[in-house]
Amino acid sequence: MKKYIIICALLLLPISPCNAQTTDTQQETLQSKASPNLQAQTPAPPKGLGNFTIGQAHPTIKSPSSIYLELKPGSSYEDSVILTNNNDKAITLVLYAADRAMQEGKYQIKTNKEKQELVGWWIQMAENDVTLAPGEKREVKYTVNIPDYVPTNEYRGAITATLPGDPSHGGFVYSIRYALGTKIVVTDNPRYLPKIGETNIFASATPYFWFSLALFIVGITYFIYGTIKERKKEKQLTR
Q1: In the chain, where are the structural domains located?
Q2: Residue range 152-172, pLDDT digits in tens
Q3: Is the pTM here over 0.70, yes or no?
Q4: In this structure, CATH architecture of domain 24-198
Q5: Lowest mean pLDDT among 118-122, 129-133, 165-169, 231-235
Q6: Closest to 79 measured CA to CA, from 115, 55, 111
Q7: DSSP assignments along 91-123, one per residue
Q8: What is the DSSP letter of 198?
Q9: C-alpha distances in angstroms, 67 versus 60, 73, 130, 142, 234?
């Protein structure tokens, strides 16, 4: 009997949490100031109205502060960003997705006046102009469509929220823009990325989890079989 217990104990060792591989390496910053080029092109908002945020409506465990997706060529994905107006006045934000590109020796997020060729083209916002009441939060859907001819690789960009300036104020004015970093990994074998707070362990389980679970079931079965076999032997000896 002891040998069955020892074997079953060893089989239980590989069992580990299904999210063990979700450790992130490096994430985009949640919010980044607009480049000087953008600030020079557009007028400034009234003082104090820049107190707003953009973030993920359903962040993943792997990347809670930025959008991280793994998608196949030719596939689609839908989710939402959440906008928050922390001002005591209503504001209207301009939403758009943009590519990340090298400009003046630094990586910058393109403006909506520039041509978008990758991430900025693949992502379409359900709304491009959103008016928020004081203190209001609102989810805005977006859709990602990856063309089937896109090579497998990593692509970066952002979903941006811009508060346009008011030219009626006169003088030198500029806009305020925040960008939600976006990284899309185009791969033939995308992983499922569990959301924060997700309780469906089967949806987020890794191949290692299923292998460990299979070993666990085999161990339990072997233990039950061994126990029954031992009891039969004991009955035969007592006769």
Answers
A1: 2-11+209-238, 24-198
A2: 999 999 999 999 877 665 655
A3: no
A4: Sandwich (2.60)
A5: 165-169
A6: 55
A7: EEEEEEEEEEEEETTEEEEPPTTSPP-SHHHHE
A8: -
A9: 8, 18, 20, 12, 62
